[in-house]
Amino acid sequence: MKFSTCFSKNRSYLLAFLIVAMLNSCKKNNNEAPINTDTSLYFTVNETNNGSLRYTNLSGKPVVKFTFTEAINTATVATGITLKDASGAAIAITATYENGNKIVNVSPQSNFTSFNTYILSVNDQLKSDSGGRLINPVNITLMSGIDDTDKFPRISDEELLTLVQQQTFKYFWDFGHPASGMARERNTSGNTVTSGGSGFGVMAMVTGIHRNFISRADGLARVQKIVNFLKTADRFHGAYSHWIDGNTGKAIAFSAKDNGGDLVETSLLMAGLLTARQYFDGANTAETNLRNDITTLYNQVEWSWYQNGANSLTWHWSPTFNWDMNLKIQGWNECLITYILAASSPTYTISKAVYDEGWARNSAMRNGNTYYGVQLPLGSASGGPLFLSHYSFLGINPNGLTDAYANYEMQNKAHAMINYNYCVANPANHSGYGPDCWGLTASDIPGGYTASSPTNDRGVIAPTAALASFPYTPTQSMAALKFFYYKLGDKIWKDYGFVDAFNLNDPWFATSHLAIDQGPIIIMIENHRSKLLWNLLMSAPEIKSGMGKLGFSSPNL
């Protein structure tokens, strides 16, 4: 049967589901009108048919236009066409008619709310004027996108920065492990605390005192609690494991053979502790004891032992698997701080040759190519995930910092701008990407975790990427912050600040918070505002000596 003459001149418009029968609706018998003629339909959503039953990023009051092969009995529309939200609650609709009731335009009476799912159903209760039934009922999924209204009242930029810092601070203060004071790996980690994330947490404590979120006495007590815990926790030639039981201090395996010392995580922890040591400079007994304890913990890390006989540092050592993982710490990545702290150690130091051969790989970490209009001095193509420019520079000030291999102010600003420019260009055509919504780094993604970057783009934006880049891209980071808070705040602003990540393609919003992502937000916003953490760590005499030995030059040393 030639049904193309009955309902469309273009067969490609037909939906994938089959039309079971149309009887003889295309023909008349002795000029008599058909009786009980079955009816089929074609539809568009906002004048578009994408060949599926799923439509995303809709806003306002989308219009679904149904074109039927027969005139519709309008009295059956109320029960034959329904709209419900994800909970099953009915949503009031408006229906208008065209072409002798063969076209029905359906739209919600009120605007869709942001990032919600609605089901528009056309069922067999819908009848034609002649009493025929609908032979291809459909359920159309309509997913709303960004609702451009502000979700919270507007405040000044400075007030917004303080609000974000204070809310994020709660992750480390309110949610700190009750026995150890350490930072939990994530908001679902129970007793599992993280060594590197706790280093970030200690820097957050210092920031919290500086911003009057807590008192100096309370902050001092919490940091001392963490230090007391670390004095008795498992150590492996002075290095801590990545994960630790917050009650017992016993190492928790991060992976099959990673059940011992993690030198990179230890360096992130020590950077935080040394920052606190420089901050708590009072002459009273409590602050003096804290400084002494931190110095002892730092001096007990056997950095040079982790060379394993080579001119390079090794990431892991296990008491049961020894050096089996055999992962050399090589640049360019987030581990510059590991080499700086190793070179700065007065007890187990490393030589400049270890830095040059192990870290810089005799200059092989250089890049020099241009991506999205920006030249990148170091690292992989397009810079990699943004945390590479954050972790080492929570305490190391990159401004004016140079050595034989790079200008680190230029490196970090270039990295952030490449990431930003990529998201603005949006070559993968992801929903939401643009000047106000950018930032690719390691984060949770739907069903897992990945290190997002321009070369590994899953459509997932992590707020920490743009917000921890404030010192490098202040204008672009502020635009992102305002978008995250004012436009997406009803979805991603929670008790501990912004959730870890989100995807606006098929709208997904993480429910997680991670210590290693929350920490850089509060710390780098503070460095942007006052240089507090930079000034503290760079003031440590060991750091001045170690960076000088490695050939660094900076007005801040």
UniProtKB/TrEMBL annotation:
The record ties this protein, via InterPro entries, to: Cu-Rt/internalin_Ig-like, Glycoamylase-like_cons_dom, SbsA_Ig
Keyword Heme in record: no
Entries under Gene3D superfamilies matching the protein: 1.50.10.140, 2.60.40.1220
| Record keyword DNA-binding present | no
Q: Which Pfam families match?
A: Big_5, Glycoamylase
Q: What are the alphabetically sorted keywords of the record? A: Signal
Where the record annotates domain SbsA Ig-like, the positions are 56-136
Q: Where is the Glycoamylase-like domain?
A: 327-540
State what protein this is by name.
Glucoamylase family protein
What organism is this sequence from?
Answer: Pedobacter ureilyticus
